Amino acid sequence: MTTMPASEFASRFLDSFQVSAFRLETLDSYLAENEREPYRRFLAGEPQEPDWRRSWQQTVQTIRETARSIGRVHVVPEELTDYLKFEITCAYPASVDAGEDVRILSRSRADALGLPHGEDYWLLDDARSAVLQYGPEREFLGVEFADSDRVEQHVTWRHAAQAEAVPLHDYLESVGLAPTH
Known about the structure:
Endonuclease, Chain A; eight-stranded mixed β-sheet; globular; DUF6879 domain-containing protein; DUF6879
């Protein structure tokens, strides 16, 4: 596999696909520098400042304006961690508003489908997979590009995950949570 640092992958993301980008997320928490303060505010019960999501919203809007699609499925446990509550109520609604197809799948259903644990990836045009690498604190380090057999597995997992996952707002309603904008 070829490795690319996180900053390089981020800077090239918009040019890395022609038709579609799909992300499978399987971790219960992540450490992203731009989320530190919003997550602290969330835990303290303070209102969110929407500016921290604008960069990603602009990325999603650019993707949609160029007739491409972007989506993700996040596999979550039945009992949500504080971080997951933050992510699905504070981060994802802005992504959906910008045009990203965000869906949630229970870990028990993901297990029944044979989806992985701890393997996050971006599937680009169903032709390339960027497997995300994380450090011990769940900080994003970079990606490794998978071989063709792994790409085929990721396509299969994407189809299974998208078919079974629930759209974000339906999921929020089902668990009694509301988006925070």
